[in-house]
Amino acid sequence: MNNTQFKIDLEAFPTTFDAIHAYLAATVFGLALVIIILLFAMLLGFMRRAKNPTPVAADNKEQAISMQIPKREPEIKIVEKIVEVEKIVEVEKIIQQPAPEPIILKEATPDAALQVLSLLQKEARFIDFLKEDINDYSDSDVGAAVRVVHTGCNKVINEHFKLAVVRKEEEGTKITLKQGFDASEVRLTGNIVGEAPFTGSLVHKGWQVTEIKLPKLTSGHNANIIAAAEVEL
Questions:
Q1: Which stretches of the chain drop beneath a pLDDT of 70?
Q2: CA distance 28 to 23
Q3: Domain range holding 82?
Q4: What average pLDDT does the chain have?
Q5: Prior bond of 102 cis (ω within 30°)
Q6: 184 within a domain of the structure (yes/no)
Q7: Dihedral Cα 146, 148, 154, 159, nearest 10 deg
Q8: Disulfide engineering: 173 pairs with which of 129, 140, 169, 213, CB 3.0-4.6 Å?
Q9: What is the pLDDT of residues 58-98, one digit of tens each?
Q10: For residue 12, is it within any domain?
Q11: CA–CA separation, 207 vs 185, rounded Å?
């Protein structure tokens, strides 16, 4: 066999460009393009992280806490719920409260009235005069009896009651009653139309008791006896 030696000149530049060379060139160009794209993407990622730093450890910690502890509602919603509950409780209290008791009119004790009748009978024979049939008497006889009754009644009133007029104006004077006047002190008469103020003439001054001085009763006294029966021995 003949020993044939091959010499390769590395500095020689190929003079022909076949399909193999074209494939190798395309592969090298594609790899270079991929590397450039990856480097560009990494550069963009670093730039975004530099602008908006988000520590991964803190996010992981917050996520872990949020998974273990349930989320609470905002304080505003909690306050609103408390207010709603308080309103419901107040409404229930109002509903459960008993109805107001009816107004009970105070009954006057009869002892004072019986005392007055007893005094009028004692000083003026008042009950005897009222129960007497005066149709059989003349006007002069009735007048004489009335004088006695008037004198005795006036004595009882002066000794046991202090009186004063309700209105100090002179009778016949024009007066005006404003809105909210006391209807127990002034009684309207005549043509009553509309609402106060009312203007009219004072017909009567009225009377009011400012002080009462009735005698005290003993515990065994029977106030129902206006005048005891009289027996002459």
A1: 1-19, 21, 51-83, 85-100, 105-108
A2: 9
A3: 19-95
A4: 79
A5: no
A6: no
A7: -160
A8: 169
A9: 455 555 555 555 555 555 666 666 667 666 666 665 555 56
A10: no
A11: 9
Are 185 and 168 in contact by the 8 Å Cβ rule? The answer is no
CA 232/CA 95 separation, integer angstroms: 71
Angle formed by the axes of helices 139-160 and 110-124, nearest 10°: 130
Total domain count, the chain: 2
**Do residues 160 and 209 lie in contact, with contact meaning Cβ atoms separated by under 8 Å?**
no
Alpha helix (H) ranges present in the chain? 19-51, 56-68, 75-96, 110-124, 126-131, 139-160
Q: Is the dihedral of CA 70, 74, 77, 79 positive or negative?
A: positive
If asked whether residues 173 and 82 sit together in one domain, one would say no
Handedness of CA 78, 80, 82, 88 (dihedral sign): negative
Percent of the chain at pLDDT > 70 equals 67
Question: 121 is written with which tokens?
Answer: 């009978």
Token look-up 């520590």 returns 55
CB 188 within 8 A of CB 204: no
In eight-state DSSP terms, residue 207 is: E
* Other Cβ atoms within 10 Å of 152 Cβ, number: 19
**If you write DSSP's letter for every residue of 156-170 in order, what string do you get?**
HHHHHEEEEES--SP
What are the contacts of 141-145 at 24+ separation with CB within 8 A? none
Whole-prediction pTM: 0.51
